[in-house]
Design goal:
The chain is of the alpha/beta class. 31% of the residues lie in helices and 28% in strands. It has helices at 39-50, 69-86, 95-100, 137-141, 168-180, 197-206, and strands at 2-7, 13-18, 23-29, 57-63, 90-93, 106-112, 117-124, 127-128, 133-136, 146-149, 161-163. The strands form two sheets. Strands 6, 7, 8, 9, 10 and 11 form a six-stranded mixed beta sheet that branches. Strand 7 (117-124) and strand 8 form a beta hairpin.
């Protein structure tokens, strides 16, 4: 059985085909704004190169946010198209959880949210201990435990920061956790990108 993994929520954009015991093919790219990554095209090339029959695919995994507004939206739409056209389940992965799974201990996983704000979630050994939220640069600098990110934000002067890079092994393990626990999206076409910003501002106004 083979599965697809897609992400355009952060850099690098990722396409992977994997099974329960190995990664068959992966592409990680850093597309610029003028030449955005085409997940569907790369998936087709992957299928052609490996001579994969679409009937071999048992599920599609997508990072649905938080992350880049445009990239996340494109990735989710592409994954929904693939899951629907293949008639296979769709599994939604959280970008901050994926970052945190790369590091042991208590960490805050971070991604830039623009405007000097950051997406943040706290994890211990990859297990969530807080909800995702948007924090300011000032709030980020007050975090006492380790901060980790796929982005190099060392220039901010954090006391304990580590940049990590997405690895095939962790991506596969995180995806398989969702698959083996049957955590698919009930209706693939209903999946919406996780943006946080709009909901966060609404809750602040209600306080």
């Amino acid at each position: 059985m083979k599965y697809l993994f897609l992400s355009q929520a952060f850099y690098p954009a990722i396409n992977m085909t994997f099974s329960e015991d190995k990664v068959h093919y992966s592409v990680m790219q850093y597309p610029n704004d003028e030449n955005p990554n085409n997940l569907l095209y790369i998936t087709k090339v992957m299928f052609d190169m490996l001579k994969i029959d679409k009937r071999e695919i048992e599920g599609v995994c997508i990072v649905y946010g938080p992350g880049s507004f445009t990239g996340t939206r494109i990735g989710v739409v592409d994954a929904k198209i693939l899951a629907y056209s293949l008639g296979k389940p769709l599994f939604a992965l959280n970008s901050l959880e994926l970052i945190a799974r790369h590091v042991k201990g208590e960490v805050s996983a971070i991604l830039s949210a623009s405007r000097n704000e950051y997406f943040e979630g706290t994890f211990i050994d990859g297990k969530r201990v807080s909800e995702d939220r948007i924090i300011s640069k000032e709030e980020l600098l007050l975090i006492k435990h380790k901060v980790v990110s796929f982005e190099d934000i060392s220039h901010l002067g954090l006391t304990d920061f580590e940049v990590v890079y997405p690895t095939e092994k962790i991506i596969m393990e995180t995806s398989l956790d969702k698959i083996k626990n049957g955590l698919s999206v009930k209706d693939p076409l209903s999946l919406k990108p996780l943006y946080l910003r709009a909901e966060d501002k609404l809750f602040r106004k209600m306080r």
